[in-house]
Design brief:
This protein is mainly alpha-helical. It has 6 helices and no strands. The radius of gyration is 16 Å and the shape is globular. The chain starts with a helix and ends with a helix. One of its GO terms (molecular function) is manganese ion transmembrane transporter activity.
Length: 186
């Protein structure tokens, strides 16, 4: 597979992570290097690992994940997005939003934004192509897009009123991404 095609796939896969990172940065408004590293590292790691898992899983679990992977991603994103939406609509001005770069929220976001990379691994396995170089490129691109998204979100949250509505917007974005994944999978 030519490098340009791998890069195009990597950019397409990183768009979900980029959107979530923008919403996370806007919600946090003060984004530390540590938070940026945590979110970017996890998103990049999961984006790189999912195609490898899909490649190794190949034909063993191919039908199950191709049939239900979009439902899993939809359910995770709907849950997280719904929770963010609810918290954004039901909080006091003194409340501090939960840090999406910590704990189970970070893991669920990492899985949810990288589930579509599983299909790329299946596809590469069916084409008989190596997975290692594409997985590395996919991971690095996701890492870079996530880091950029965090800081773009921070800028938007500080410079506009987006920061006040970031949790609501972030929840709607996650639910929208989940709906898109479900729609594409049906």
């Amino acid at each position: 597979m030519p490098f340009v095609e791998i890069l195009a796939v990597a950019v397409a896969l990183a768009m979900d992570a980029f959107a979530v990172a923008i919403a996370s940065g806007a919600a946090l408004r003060i984004v530390t290097n540590r938070q940026t590293f945590r979110l970017a590292w996890h998103f990049g790691l999961f984006q790189a690992a999912m195609p490898i898992i899909g490649w190794f899983g190949g034909f063993l679990v191919r039908d199950y994940f191709l049939r239900f992977g979009h439902w899993i991603a939809f359910a995770l994103l709907l849950y997280i997005g719904g929770h963010m939406l609810w918290e954004g609509l039901h909080h006091d001005e003194d409340d501090v939003c939960q840090d999406p770069t910590l704990g189970s929220r970070l893991i669920m976001l990492s899985v949810a934004t990288s589930i579509d990379a599983l299909a790329v691994g299946f596809t590469l396995a069916m084409l008989g192509l190596s997975i290692w170089f594409p997985a590395a490129i996919i991971g690095v691109v996701a890492l870079l897009f996530t880091a950029a998204g965090m800081h773009l979100g921070k800028f938007l949250g500080c410079q506009t009123r987006l920061g006040y509505y970031a949790e609501v917007l972030g929840g709607l974005v996650l639910m929208g991404i989940g709906g898109k994944i479900l729609w594409q999978g049906l």
